Amino acid sequence: MRNLNQSHRTTHTTVGLIPARWHSSRFDGKPLAEIDGVPMIKRVYDQAMLCKNLDTVVILTDDMRIYSYCQGLTMPVEMIVSDKIKTGTDRCAEAIKFLEGRVFVNIQGDEPLINPDAIDSLIENHTGGVSNAYVDINDYYKLHDKNVVKVAIGTPQLLKTYALHYSRLPISNKQQLGLYAFDRDMLEMFPNLPVGENEKSESVEMLRYVENGLKVRMTKVEDEGLSVDTIEDLRRVEEYIKNV
Question: Which end of the chain has fewer CB within 10 Å, C or N?
């Protein structure tokens, strides 16, 4: 991977961004929560660093504890603090004011087992605008788990499939992953778009594009889809690691 500070940086750079905030309605301090002895943010960063299609990876946080931890391990990190930031994508949009790059990939900081191949696949299939990864749901509990976002997609046209709606209810057997690719202009646009009623009720940030008549291209990837929203999820990931 290239580092943005090196002399060969380019406007064609593909940048991985990992939002990692301290406070959460369900789990404060989640980025530094240990999973089998390793803090979650390091697991996410290490997985992202295995990608062949990312030129650099930067962690974005609002908390000095996370910032200091990352600095101590020489993981690129930026403090992004603003009262206007409500979502991880808002944090990414704020960060690119200070970063060069053409395509930005939002990799959620609570996906400690994210498959590097899934990130690479999303980038390879990103043809512009906004892209979002999804997987088929094979575990029944996920259908009725409101922490798991489901996505309804349209009929593929010319090999392109777009999101129709996202919900925490069992509207489909397809799980949205917190893995997004944006062209710079689309990410810059995000904070300025009106927040609609669906986004407010579902707390799913990609609905901001959908509700404003913009397309979100869906890309199917291979991934376990094990995000950490609660302490119970943390234990589930630990069990998975031990049994692999």
Answer: C
Whole-angstrom Cα distance, residue 138 to residue 224?
A: 10
- Stretch (H or E) spanning 143: helix 140-143
| pLDDT one-digit tens code per residue, 23-51 | 876 678 889 999 989 999 999 999 999 99
Provide the 8-state DSSP code for 192: G
Tokens 């609002």, residue located: 62
Domains defined along the chain, listed by start = 14-243 (3.90.550.10)
Q: Output the CA–CA distances (angstroms, integers) from residue 20 to 92, 132, 235, in the order listed.
A: 11, 19, 20
pTM of the model: 0.89
In whole angstroms, give the CA distance from residue 156 to residue 35. Answer: 38
**pLDDT tens for residues 58-115?**
999 999 999 999 999 999 999 988 778 889 999 999 999 989 999 999 999 889 999 9
Q: Which two tokens stand for residue 12?
A: 């064609």
So what's the pLDDT on residue 240?
Answer: 86
CA distance 135 to 150: 10
Contacts 24+ apart (CB under 8 A), 120-126: 120/51, 120/52, 120/53, 121/219, 121/221, 121/222, 122/179, 122/180, 122/181, 122/219, 122/221, 123/14, 123/51, 123/53, 123/54, 123/181, 124/53, 125/217, 125/219, 126/181, 126/217, 126/219
Instruction: Provide the 3-class DSSP secondary structure of residue 226.
Output: coil
Name the nearest CA neighbour of 180 among 126, 234, 231.
126
Spatial distance between the Cα atoms of 101 and 75, rounded to a whole number of angstroms? 19
